[in-house]
Amino acid sequence: MTAIVDLDRGAATTASATRPKRRRLDWGHVVSYVILIALAVVYLGPMLMLVLTPLKTLPEFQKNAIGLPDTLNLSSFANAWDKANFPRYLLNTVIYTVSSVLIFLVTAVFLAVAIARRFVRGSGSLFTLFVIALFLPAALIPQFQLILRLGLYDNPIGYVMLFLVNPIGVVILVNYIRTIPVELDEAAAIEGCGYFRFVVQIVIPLIMPAIATVAVLAAIGVWNELILPTIYLSNQDYYPITRGLLVFYGVYGSDWPSIAAAVLMIAAPMTVFFLFAQRWIIGGVTAGAVKG
């Protein structure tokens, strides 16, 4: 009888051991997911509204700004293209962006190599000045006086010169170059490699992630700039595309569907550029902003 009871107890113990345990609800994960979903809604809500607004007519937008469009209306894109003088202003923006980014990258790479390898006296202090410049506000009044005295007001060359200094770009490049082994410098010097050849053939191929990161940051800054062209460019022939957005704003009302359509068309090229360069960006930011 005792053996039978022991067998029953063993079977019950085995059954309870094999029975799947009920998982406890992890409230920490639940709260985290709720917060992430709320942040996603807060972030994606305005983006969704921006995408839906050009598909509405102006009376439909004024009637229900956040609702879904009744019909797909694509006339806002055509209106924005014509009224904002997109072909001319877009060409100006491309010229400003490409020229300023290329000049900045060429000068910043040679400067960053000199600072990172301490080829110049006071390179540490010079690098500190660039770091301090990250936290300083834009000096619009001295900058405006300088442009006036140089005779570059309302001049595309003067406007491009405003973007040739980018402290965050120099900081990223310097810190990334510091991760390159110094033995490469010594090997290049033994082979008789000059400074220009060393930078072009050795350094630049190794720092492409940092260059792509800086290029994206600089291009987005030039492409989306609105305050500087409003101050320094008065001739409509020199306006960038962001300056063309102001034609949709009126005293008694604004054409919001056309504004949203113009914003989407302006953002499209930079979005494509970012998607193309994103595989280099993560490596450039992590190595260029953390190390050093």
If you had to describe this structure to a student in words, what would you say it looks like?
The protein has two domains: 23-73, no CATH class; 77-289, MetI-like fold, CATH 1.10.3720.10. Helices cover 70% and strands 0% of the residues. The chain has helices at 2-18, 27-52, 58-63, 75-83, 86-116, 123-133, 140-149, 156-161, 167-177, 183-190, 195-206, 208-223, 227-232, 256-289. The longest helix is centred in the last third of the chain and has 34 residues, at 256-289. The chain is globular, with a radius of gyration of 29 Å.
Kindly summarize this structure in a few lines.
The chain is mainly α and 292 residues long.
Write the layout of secondary structure elements.
Elements: H1 2-18, H2 27-52, H3 58-63, H4 75-83, H5 86-116, H6 123-133, H7 140-149, H8 156-161, H9 167-177, H10 183-190, H11 195-206, H12 208-223, H13 227-232, H14 256-289
Helix pairs in contact: 4-14, 5-9, 5-12, 6-9, 9-12, 9-14, 12-14
Give the helix tally: 14
Unreliable residue runs = 288-292
Task: Assign the CATH topology of the largest domain.
Answer: MetI-like fold
**Strand tally, please?**
0
- The radius of gyration over CA amounts to 29 Å
Question: What would you call the shape?
Answer: globular
CATH class membership of the largest domain: Mainly Alpha
Percent range of helical residues:
55-70%
| Mean of all residue-level pLDDT scores | 81
Largest sheet: none
**Separation, N- and C-terminal Cα atoms:** 78 Å
The CATH architecture of the largest domain can be given as Orthogonal Bundle
Number of spatially distinct domains: 2
What is the string of helix and strand elements?
A: HHHHHHHHHHHHHH
